Amino acid sequence: MAEDARQTGGLLRNHGGGHAPVSYLELFFDLVFVFAITQLSHVLHEDLSWGGLLAETVLFLAVWWAWMYTTWVTNWADPERLPIRVMLLVLMLLSLALAVAIPTAITSHAALFAASYVAIQLGRSSCMILVFRRANPSNARNLARISIWFAASAVFWATGVLRGADERLAWWLVALAIEYTGPFTYFRVPGLGRSTAANWNISGSHMAERCALFIIIALGEGIVVTGSALSGQPLVAGRLTAFLLAFLSSVLMWWLYFDLGADRSAQRIKQDMQPGRFARDAYTYLHMPIVGGIVIGAVADALVLEHWAEPVSPALVLTLCGANVLFLLGLSAFKRLSSPLHAPPLSHGVAAILFALLGTWAWLRTPGALTLAGLAVAILALAVVWEWVSFHGGWKERFFAAIGREAA
Length: 408
Known about the structure:
The protein folds into two domains: 2-200, no CATH class; 204-398, no CATH class. The chain has 15 helices and no strands. The chain has helices spanning 2-7, 24-46, 50-76, 82-101, 110-135, 137-163, 165-181, 204-230, 237-271, 275-285, 287-306, 314-338, 346-365, 369-391, 395-407.
């Protein structure tokens, strides 16, 4: 990698597969996606229907893919170099246009959304072909294959814009299906062959840290929604209870991800012989349901804060219980990859089943919104305590030993 950096005027990071720190520019870039996540939450909150959920899914998949591919690129390219810095700032502007278009992406701003997205994906990949052209021809071919896959999907993005709102989501789903299939086939292209895991030589610690930061972004959206819903409202006991339950839900989700999963996976990817393949599975794909569950959970929190004194609605039951099932199953699959036993945590599976049962019960019995939210927090707390006891063996002995030392 040192030779690569010299040949490209230092445009590539010299991490050699080791640690690559997250730059300030990358954190600045992520601010756009804080806005994008907020926009996605508003889209679902304003259209709590199956059609709204489908639109939310399509838009979320596009936002995630735009951010994730940029994360891969900044793993290789050095954001401190002027050409890379300019590229990222242009991508940031395009991403802002993408985020602005989200609320009306299926209707009046479809062209802005699709054009911004295609420009992000094709523009970034084309720039990286030039960066890798002399330093690493095999990686240049890798980016060329990726560009061809994005060019193929661009046809369907454009067709969706031209065919009208009633067909738009179907065409865009085809485009996303093409793009999401690419990494599984190693971007096979007739005449150019396919990429290999060796082409995806990355800094595992950088990838782990970037995805952990995106989890913080998603959780932060829940905090913003909670605070905004409470601000300016009378501070009655019921509304304060709803606020506390929403806050606890975010805290418990944070605990489940960061207490064990994030660090253990970061260690696992640093030791993996093919970190690129692990990053594809654990971070590129399996983080989607984790982030998606958090985003939908923020919508559920907003509904609880708005209707805390009322019986649950079908929308609240589906968003609250569905979000937690999605989050727990995604997190369980993510943790399985880094588990020494290659087994998913039993606590997460049981908690997901309990949420499914809770949703069924709430659908049939229609309890109060606060009751449903309180039971949801209790299930998340159960998962947290169960995992803590299971993976922090001997905690009681250490606790009482520490008390003994203090007494002495």
